[in-house]
């Protein structure tokens, strides 16, 4: 059973933020690092690991373990950024889409290839949906459309990450408020799912119904925590680097995120 209806829920928040704020830059400066994991990270005390990583493969027992152990992520086979390093040389751009070269099959395991392939497919879907143009030299995708003349948020992405660049305090504060708003919505949804579990248990509902309700609670409860943590990461960056350009990256494979100043 999948804990998430669609793992892309977390990443879709990024797109929603850009659209809600109504600001997309028309061009990209390719001078800064494009790997998504360089320069200054957030505080070492600031957690930036998405507990949803690998959750699409959780069993009912793992869901129960997550809820029982104070929201500790169950053991999964999800790989780290080492997988990205292995796959990167075999990712290219053709016809404004990311393509995996055949040589990747001799380097990646079947499981690794499947993970990379799924991420590439989702990234290609994002390119089409967002009307993005991929720079074939560094494989960075950026929007072609400008919604406002004064760009305070710049959006770019790669085959394995999404990035928001904030160019004003107003933009950062808007993002923080947005993530908190999304988190609150998930919290309300989780409370509703938890209520269903309680009522079902009281009246002896079938185990299958209880399991579905528990999964719904786990999904929304974790999403609430994740988006709240995203808000916390940006708030930390805002507190430590005021009046600076700040980038916020979300890794599509590990579902980790970080904020850093450019």
UniProtKB/TrEMBL annotation:
This is Uncharacterized protein. It comes from Schleiferilactobacillus perolens DSM 12744. The lineage of its organism: Bacteria, Bacillati, Bacillota, Bacilli, Lactobacillales.
